[in-house]
Design goal:
Layout lengths: L4 H5 L4 E3 L2 E5 L4 E5 L10 E6 L2 E6 L2 E7 L21 H19 L27
Antiparallel strand pairs: 1-2, 2-3, 4-5, 5-6
């Protein structure tokens, strides 16, 4: 039996008391559960090259040193409703994750200009059951 896609692709959500975090080959995502009615003005996010801090409504959620340096100017944060997920954004993320998985599984090939079409949801087709 093959490992789940999340483990094969290196995208493994890490649950925490405040939400979860996960990373791709190039990005780190931190998802924090906030109280209903939270506004952008209630959020304080401080990302520095080796440090991150987040407070919501004056309450510190997370604060700490990062494992490696980041480019702080490239960091972004959004406040989203769980019901307002944009289907186009989800589609683009699935395509990106599928290409990252293909690159990791086939390191000798260059997928930088590739485009995904067809069945790529949930990591694309599962070929683990095919005979070798």
């Amino acid at each position: 039996m093959s490992a789940p896609f999340e483990e094969r692709s290196g995208v493994v959500p890490c649950g925490t008391p405040w939400g979860q975090w996960y990373q791709t080959l190039e990005e780190v995502f931190i998802e924090v559960q906030v109280p209903p009615g939270t506004r952008a003005q209630d959020v304080r996010c401080d990302l520095q090259s080796r440090h991150v801090a987040l407070a919501v409504g004056g309450r510190e959620i997370l604060k700490g040193k990062l494992f490696d340096s980041t480019i702080a100017d490239e960091g972004t944060w959004t406040l989203e409703s769980e019901y307002a997920a944009d289907p186009w954004v989800q589609d683009q993320m699935q395509r990106k994750l599928t290409l990252e998985r293909f690159q990791k599984e086939n390191p000798g090939f260059d997928f930088s200009g590739a485009e995904i079409s067809g069945n790529y949801t949930k990591g694309g087709p599962d070929f683990s059951n095919l005979e070798k």
